[in-house]
Amino acid sequence: MTTPPVRAIAEPLTDTRIWTADFIKLTIVTTLLRICTQIQITSMPLFFLYLGGSNALAGLSMTFFTLAALLTRPLIGMMLDTYGRKPILLWGVVVYTITTVLYGFVAFIPALIFLRIMHGISFSASSTATSTMVSDVLPENKMTQGISYFGLFGTLAVAIAPSATLYLLEVSDYAVLYYLTGIVSLIALLISMRIESEKNRHRKELAADIAHPPSKRHSPDAAGPWNKLIEIRAIPPSVVVLFVSLATSTVMVFLPSFAIDNGIRHIGVVFVVQAAALALSRFIVGPWIAWTGPRFVMSVNLLALGVALAGISFSSTLWELIIWAVLFGFTNGCLIPQLNARAITNTDQANRGKANATFYIALDFGIGAGAAGWGLLSDFFEMRWIFLLAGFLMIFALSAFAYMESSQRTNAGI
């Protein structure tokens, strides 16, 4: 398949700043949409029950959303590379806003299920698009640091959305809640229309073509038809993040019940401390990598994450949980942006939409499969053994990372 010639860009690719206008706009858009998404995650099971649904159906409210997002990510990634980032972003945010507002008009369960599916698809489009556009505007040598800052504000959404949701439901109703989130989504749409990252993307593609002519680069089509939907070069870091997300899902899902079983109260403090440690890590990981190198940072954090999970399994007091939550949050905050950056920088500029989609498929699948798989195992093992087994998964993550490093050194002729 022939590719159109790349138009020369007058401006050279010299901006090495992270906090450019487009990066700030993308960060704001993502933060606003994540706040809306977290509000809906908190309220949706209650809304299903309010409309007369069963507890089982209420529990599936997140499943409809997650499956729709997961199954459409490969197609979204291909469309981002084929049709451009901004059209997919705008389509995603428009549909996201419409479905959010329509929640306020829903009066029966089938319509709500349909909206949850459409919401999952639009979330997949908007989130994959913003992540890819961020990789377009960030300098290559500051990719991990930039992605760390970009993801930092997602922590804000997780921190404020649940309490804000419950407060709004106390003073108003579901219709008002969803109208307000619709307004927030509309603000995100208006900001999205002002993003001009495509110019920077074309400059990066031109620079890549000059450094490595297309005839000398790896041909994506050579990997077979799956490469139209999955970026092969993003698979190694995606495998590592799969093991990481499988392990970390235990804390997301089972830490409250583990605390209750062990008579530990005020578990909410643990999540606050964990979020604070995660936020702190986003400021530290970039300089840390510049000082010691990415291989050391990755290895240390994979090992430390396993230690944190093992420590949680042996905890019997709130203070012990807080100590391990600090280590857990810090290591998790270091690993995800670094692995995401590796998935992106392993790939040429023209296929970074697929690279981001491949990475987030692994991340989402690990969280979903982990929650289900550990739940099944909890019927046969005590909860502390679940955390311990999750810690042992880091052995596989370290092995996958070592294989990835050795393969890259071999390919580079080192």
Model description:
The protein is globular, with a radius of gyration of 21 Å. It is mostly helical and 414 residues long. It folds into two domains: 18-204, Up-down Bundle (Growth Hormone, Chain: A), CATH 1.20.1250; 229-409, Growth Hormone, Chain: A, CATH 1.20.1250. The protein is built from 14 helices and no strands. It has helices at residues 21-50, 55-59, 61-83, 85-102, 109-137, 143-171, 174-192, 197-211, 235-261, 268-292, 294-313, 318-345, 352-377, 383-411. Residues 1-13 and 209-223 have low confidence and may be disordered. InterPro entries: MFS, MFS_dom, MFS_Exporter, MFS_trans_sf. It is a multi-pass membrane protein. It is found in: Cell membrane.
- What sequence of helices (H) and strands (E) makes up the elements? HHHHHHHHHHHHHH
**CATH class (first level) name of the largest domain:** Mainly Alpha
Tell me the major beta sheet: none
CATH architecture of the largest domain: Up-down Bundle
* Average predicted confidence as pLDDT: 85
The low-confidence runs, each spanning 5 or more residues with pLDDT under 50, are 1-13, 209-223
Secondary structure tally, helices = 14
Overall tally of domains: 2
- Backbone CA Rg: 21 Å
